[in-house]
Amino acid sequence: MSLEPLKSFSELPLSKPVLAAIEAAKYQTPTPVQSGTIPLILAGIDLIVQSQTGSGKTAAFAIPMVEMVDKNPGVIQALILAPTRELAVQVSEEVRRVGADEKGLSVVPVYGGASIRDQITAVKDAEIIVATPGRMLDLLKRKATSLDGLTIFCLDEADEMLSMGFERELSAIREFLPEERQSLLFSATVTEHIKSVAADLLFYPEFISFSSDAGGAEEIEHSYYLISGIGRLQDLQRVIQVEEPEAAIVFCNTKDDTFRVSNFLKGLGYDADVLNGDLPQKERMKVMGSMKAGELRFLVATDIAARGIDVAEISHFINYVLPESAESYVHRTGRTGRAGKKGEAISLISPKEIGMFYQLRRAYGFELRAKELPSEEVLATMKERKALEDILAGLDAKEELDYGAFLTFVDSFAELPDYPQRLAKLLSFFVTYKEGVAEALKGFEKRFSFASSQKPKRESRPAEPAAEVQAEPESDDSEVEEAPARPRRTRQRRVESAPAESKPAKVDSEDSESSNSDRNGDGRRGRNRRRGSNRTEDNGSADMERLTINLGSDDLKSTGQLVRLVAELSGMEVSDLGTAKILDDHCWVEVRPDLADDIAEAIHNERVDDHVLRVTR
Fold it and tell me: What's the gap between Cα 19 and its chain centre?
């Protein structure tokens, strides 16, 4: 079907209130999906629309929907189903923005995880409902609302809805829909499965595609960094330092990784927060609000929790670990490079992920550009350049400075034989005694430091929300579970014991005994023996306990990498670890005896790329 692009929304047969709302929302020229679908929806045609996330598709169905709905409180005339609570809230906000508020229409989002009694009260005066499938079905079964007056029905992100397992709910909701209605289906991908579902819901629909199955992923820049898979957090830090994203989503495959990555980024001084299935609804909404307000630079999320995220300011998404399917990669990618902006997709790829990498290239023909992780020397140069830029920027801002008298002095200064050293001393003096510049550089130093002592502590998981006492049980849209998270481990408490067969084996070792011979006068252990070059010596410290791990010289590049890995997996501080040694087929690291049990249990059976770690003592 040939679709002529529209130059202005005023070319559409829209009422004054809707046009006024569109203008107030600063929508100027319709996007291709809006030009192609709004006239057909206004004409009453059923549609299957293939369009990527971020293409303006929400307004494409929201604008004609608002135009077609009349003010009649309590008569539900439009129903939009969305796969997640976050998307339901965002869609309802968009519907209000494009004219519902202007026309005095009531738009109510309903979803699991919130009080169903409050939602039952709210829908009694609604004309438009935006809902997740599970909660909508619950309302219908309770007879809390009726769809007898429904005129238009829309499935948003249908592919996501099916992948999350909502086909049963869709089939049940269909029984409550009136025969005489208009139906719309929007999806980033249109598979045979989606077409079969559409056949049950739509009546002789038109199919319009504004993107391939790759969606917006084709329109952004794809790149990757090959990493070893050991010390992945430090590799992520280097990538961030080089790429300098304005705002990014860091995607993880498990909840446990989201906490780990978020804590690490916070420890480096970045504004970061977690979005995963463990968060209560209020916390999820708070995090999303912070991201939209520009208060967060990094949102660390799982796929399921991030579905439906629509933040125009996102410049990058980073795969901390590649997703488990090529299709998931496409859906992640569609969340950046929005509203005509150029986005960037970056992946950290370890040897075990190469297979998925090639599957992605075969399935969608993406050209992922290889990038090389910067060395510490390169990062040091970047740090120096940035520090100089900060100083110069501070000087440039002081327009009132009268420096003319110093120009002759500078010429003479530059002729001195030790000019570089004297200039460095002058800068050191300037930084030391000018508090503003000193503080700015301290903040910069913190972000760019590779000092392993800045390893952040893990934060505990948020408490589960208190159960609400209700007259009847209510359903929740939580059918899809994310990968289970392991118990949080901290030095204050012993890790929950693993099954007997999976516990680390304990063997006799001459290094297993500890003594208090190196305690200082104040009762604290002296740490000088555990730092610096002692880490590579064969003889260990008498007051430390040795843990042996099944990683050898083929797996680890340095003892520093080994120590950082142990600290990362156990949630301990690097200062709690001592001497380390890497041999051909195994390695060992010394730890404080009072932490040995926790560290051993935390590491044992952990997976690092293709290795399942085994710890002996």
Answer: 35
Question: Does residue 3 sit within a domain?
Answer: no
Contact 335, 249 (CB under 8 A): yes
Question: How many CB atoms neighbour CB 461 within 10 A?
Answer: 16
- Does 173 lie in the same domain as 30? yes
pLDDT band at 449 (very low <50, low <70, confident <90, very high): very low
- Between 416 and 454, the more confident residue is 416
At residue 285, the pLDDT reads 78
Domain count along the chain: 4
Boundary of a domain, candidates 209, 241, 271: 209
Q: Could you give the angle at the alpha carbon of 462 between the alpha carbons of 282 and 120, nearest 5°?
A: 30
Residue 493 in domain? no
Nearest to 579 by CA among 610, 615, 540, 547: 540
Distances (CA, A) of 579 to 120, 205, 530, 605: 63, 69, 6, 23
Q: Which two tokens stand for residue 365?
A: 């023909």
Give the separation between CA 454 and CA 286, rounded to whole angstroms: 28
Clarify whether residues 245 and 127 are in a common domain: no
Order of strands, sheet of 369-371, starting from the edge strand that comes earlier in the sequence = 272-275, 298-302, 248-252, 316-319, 344-349, 221-226, 369-371
**H or E segment to which residue 173 belongs:** helix 167-174
Cα separations in angstroms, 380 against 242, 246, 276, 338: 11, 21, 35, 33
Residues 403 and 421 in one domain: yes
The yes-or-no verdict on residue 292 having pLDDT over 90 is no
Helix (H) or strand (E) holding 422: helix 419-433
What is the band of 482 on the pLDDT scale with cuts at 50, 70, 90? very low
Range of the domain at 589: 500-616
- The length of the chain is 617
Same domain, 222 and 205: no
Which CA distances in Å does 572 have to 272, 334, 396, 563?
A: 21, 37, 44, 10
pLDDT given for residue 26 in this prediction: 87
| Domain at 598, CATH number | 3.30.70.330
- Is the Cα dihedral 78, 84, 85, 89 positive or negative? negative
Does residue 308 have a pLDDT over 60? no
d(CA 200, CA 185): 12
Residues 3 and 35 sit within 8 Å (Cβ to Cβ): yes
- What are 171-212's pLDDT values in tens digits? 999 999 999 999 999 998 888 889 989 999 998 899 988 765
- The mean pLDDT value of the chain amounts to 77
| Res 435: pLDDT | 56
Note whether 28 and 166 are same-domain residues. yes
Q: Phi and psi dihedrals of 149, rounded to 5?
A: -95, 10
117, containing H or E segment: helix 116-123
Both tokens of 296, joined, read 């967060």
- Domain annotation covers residue 257: yes
Is 470 part of any domain? no
Write the CB contacts of 366 (distance below 8 Å, at least 6 apart in sequence). Answer: 214, 217, 218, 222, 360
Q: Are both 526 and 546 inside the same structural domain?
A: yes
